[in-house]
Amino acid sequence: MRLVIFDVDGTLIDSQNNIVASAEAAFAALSLAAPARADVLRLVGLSLPETMVRLAPTATQALRDDLVQAYKDSFRTMRLQGHDAPMFPGARDAVLQLAGAPGTMLAIATGKSRRGLEAMLDQHELRGLFHSTQVADDHPSKPHPSMVLAALAETGVDARHAVMVGDTSFDMDMAAAAGVRRIAVGWGYHAPELLVADHHISRFDELAPIFDQMTELADG
Length: 220
Known about the structure:
Radius of gyration: 17 Å
Strand order of the largest sheet: 3-2-1-4-5-6
Structural class: alpha/beta
Distance between the termini: 14 Å
Strand content: 5-15%
Helix content: 40-55%
Low-confidence stretches: none
Order of helices and strands: EHHHHHEHEHEHEEH
Number of strands: 6
């Protein structure tokens, strides 16, 4: 068996507007100056507590906890109001193609909460396609390898037969720490030239052939 582990925000879905709006709303709710859009997007992929440490380094822990909750409240409100994040072009087709490939399992390793991930899977009709879903609720923040290691353990796939697909240095570093090879996408929230990966792709239709090539080499 072989395994494809996907990041979500910036890799499968284009959630940047919702993320920035929720961060701005959280800081406004606590009468704090909003962080710059670029600073927020640079931290996509980290857990919310770690994100707030970096966005509000001088704040007390209690204030950061309030920022985390305010962000969650804002994000949930946006979702209930129908402000759903779209998938990137070709993302759903690529997931379906890989899900139907012989001997292939899919997993998710995301900084989203369990509730947020479940809502995304329902919105895009992806439920049931992933054999392992690892979220920030249950693990240390990326780039700690915990999420990838848990996905490997749940699926029973050896690290050399697994590939991480992501858009940030946090994804790439997490995969490297777990001994998993890396495919960096070129449409996410970190500049592609800054991502250290085994392969880079600029379109989703490049994913399956490259994954086949990587896993064939591992078998060889």
